[in-house]
User: Which sequence fits this backbone?
């Protein structure tokens, strides 16, 4: 299996990357980032693209992949709707259009978030934009596609969030992590990675996956 991962410098994307590199089913991992991971691995290949909306400029390097794990995202704090849409919807659509042209039989997984608004009509701006993005991904026509909607995520294997105040909260909550992990409503970076991989080989009827569904799929 050959997979493409975006957002691998972030907490969720790094978790997906680690699980992909460790999984024997996966023979090649292509990460597409704005800056290098600075990591060496026999499975790993990088494309550095300063403007991710220009993904079509490297489309000749994107053929023959079985899945895309799209983990790229940004906090809505400090952004208006146009700014958030450009990063959240427009870049995702550029990837979806380019990858569909090259690999229509791939599985495309989009990391969204709990509370996303599929109707695209709610009062919460980020939820509307995420919902619009989910709908675009799921309706494109890929062999299969999923919207991952994690809520509470526990980082594992030394992974840290790029958001400073998240890390502060994790430090405070760390003693309770073993208890939290017993709840089906809490997931981990490892489980999200395993669920992404399993989605390629275990098609799911439900296309919007929140923490309980992510955990269930991770265990297959």
Assistant:
């Amino acid at each position: 299996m050959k997979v493409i991962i975006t957002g691998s410098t972030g907490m969720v994307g790094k978790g997906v990357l680690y699980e992909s590199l460790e999984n024997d089913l996966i023979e090649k991992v292509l990460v597409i980032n704005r800056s290098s991971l600075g990591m060496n691995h026999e499975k790993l290949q990088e494309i550095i693209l300063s403007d991710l909306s220009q993904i079509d400029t490297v489309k000749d390097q994107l053929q023959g992949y079985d899945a895309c794990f799209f983990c790229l995202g940004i906090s809505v704090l400090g952004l208006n709707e146009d700014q958030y849409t450009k990063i959240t919807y427009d870049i995702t659509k550029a990837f979806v259009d380019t990858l569909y042209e090259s690999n229509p039989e791939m599985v495309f997984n989009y990391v969204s978030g709990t509370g996303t608004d599929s109707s695209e009509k709610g009062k919460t701006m980020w939820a509307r934009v995420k919902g619009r993005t989910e709908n675009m991904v799921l309706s494109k026509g890929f062999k299969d596609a999923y919207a991952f909607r994690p809520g509470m995520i526990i980082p594992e294997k030394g992974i840290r969030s790029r958001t400073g105040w998240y890390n502060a909260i994790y430090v405070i909550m760390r003693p309770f992590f073993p208890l939290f992990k017993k709840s089906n409503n809490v997931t981990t970076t490892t489980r999200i990675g395993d669920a992404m991989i399993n989605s390629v080989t275990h098609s799911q009827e439900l296309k919007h996956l929140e923490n309980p569904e992510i955990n269930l799929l991770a265990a297959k």
